[in-house]
Specification:
Helix content: 25-40%
Structural class: alpha/beta
CATH topology: Rossmann fold
Radius of gyration: 18 Å
CATH architecture: 3-Layer(aba) Sandwich
Strand order of the largest sheet: 3-2-1-4-5-7-6-8
Number of helices: 9
Length: 248
């Protein structure tokens, strides 16, 4: 119990008053791979994208550099400020908002994809899933980079594997999936998860597609009538190989 309390306090400070140290801490605990882990979401994104918990803006800068239409949202004033500075340095437009995922400041049917990388438990709250379902277009997709397991054999890899397990950052997705699938299903999503294999680690990416309303044409049907919808994809990080599992 005390460990959970201390972790919550630490993460809250790291995301707010200690936000200046966020990138350094992330680099250390990931052995310099934190941004590569976040980039595993990119091949699954298309169209207009909303990033929840955009943090210091690394994924926003990456999507802007590719010419993607992306919006970043975070409840932390410090993180929004960091993301804004990063985008300005890159000469990219600022499409950032300070708001909560449980009350998204966007009209219904606005986005093709919603993405979150390593979100806290807010991502599974009923209000959050309702809001995501509301702002997604029919057959829009929720992409969550959920967790990482270290698979390397060196002592530091084994130590980080233990650390991630005891702090709850790495959990058994096979055990969690029945609960996660049921929660997604209850809010209008059909989901599955995939493993992305990297050199010393395995990233778990959860993909959930919004079921179209019976009263609305599907994206595929609309695309056929309009001559085919175009979707832009980025290549996965070098050395990353996706492997599908866990279909609902």
């Amino acid at each position: 119990m005390w460990l959970t309390f201390l972790l919550r306090l630490f993460f809250s400070l790291l995301y707010h008053s200690l936000a200046w140290a966020y990138d350094a801490v992330a680099w250390v605990v990931s052995l310099g791979r934190w941004q590569d882990w976040g980039k595993t979401a990119l091949p699954y994104l298309y169209g207009r994208t909303l990033e929840l918990g955009c943090g210091p803006g690394h994924l926003q800068a990456e999507m802007a550099a590719r010419g993607w239409s992306a919006v970043g949202l975070d409840e932390s004033r410090q993180m929004i400020a960091q993301a804004a500075r990063r985008l300005r340095r890159c000469g990219r437009p600022l499409r950032l908002a300070r708001a909560r995922a449980q009350a998204l400041p966007y009209p219904a049917l606005t986005f093709d994809t919603v993405v979150a990388t390593f979100p806290s438990e807010y991502i599974l709250e009923i209000e959050t899933l309702q809001e995501i379902e509301r702002v997604l277009k029919p057959e829009g997709k929720l992409v969550v980079v959920a967790m990482v397991w270290f698979t390397g054999r060196r002592c530091v890899h084994r130590w980080l594997r233990w650390l991630f397990r005891v702090t709850g950052e790495s959990q058994e997705i096979d055990r969690l999936w029945p609960f996660l699938a049921a929660r997604l299903e209850a809010h209008g999503f059909a989901g599955h998860y995939e493993f992305v294999e990297m050199d010393i680690c395995r990233v778990v990416v959860i993909l959930a597609e919004k079921r179209p309303s019976p009263a609305l044409p599907s994206v595929r049907e609309a695309g056929k009538r309009e001559g085919g919808a175009k979707r832009l994809y980025l290549q996965p990080p070098q050395g990353a190989t996706p492997r599908k599992r866990g279909y609902q």
